[in-house]
Amino acid sequence: MKVKVWAINGVTPVVDPSSFVHPSAVLIGDVIVGPGCYIGPGASLRGDFGRIEIRAGANLQDCCVMHGFPGTDTVVEEEGHIGHGAILHGCVVRKNALVGMNAVVNDNATIGESAIVAAMAFVKAGMVVPPRTLAGGVPAKVMRALTDQELAWKIEGTQSYQELVRRSLATMTETEALDAVEAGRKRIDLPELLPLSTLKAGTSRNSS
Description:
By secondary structure, the protein is α/β, with parallel strands linked by helices. Helix content is 14%, strand content 30%. The chain is built from 2 helices and 19 strands. Strand 18 (133-136) and strand 19 form a beta hairpin. The longest helix is centred in the C-terminal third of the chain and has 24 residues, at 148-171. The N and C termini lie far apart (45 Å).
């Protein structure tokens, strides 16, 4: 099924057929979504000023906003991972980087390859976060280099969203809610994916 989008000034968003865009997401104008991407519910990609680009295998989660000034490109490169509620404005998120939940990345900032911006951080205009580092705080500062464990966790999380693209395209349908919980209600059975804090503590959901 074709993704419903909004053209403006004769420019129509482009969505690769292998990507999943939730019907509640809004794509306007000069937006380019590459292959295998996930665009979550309530996301807003406003290409009504500058270009918005999401490259292969990246995800933009629920209620994220992407926008920029005229003449700018706001870009999430390959394998980029943008957490719930984040705002990207006129910036570039390099390959395999992660922007945490409710973080803000401002104009002309660059998040380096395989870097992580912590949840709730504010990355000031023009800031460059070096590759494979952690930045956090308000305003954000580079805190330290990332560990191998943290990078592996990030990659695993991004892969889970790439699998969600496939699951959504194959099984998600609009339907009507049930009136009551059915007997023996099934759960969505997926491989365990732990929060980083749990992983670092060396525990799992099934630990006693």
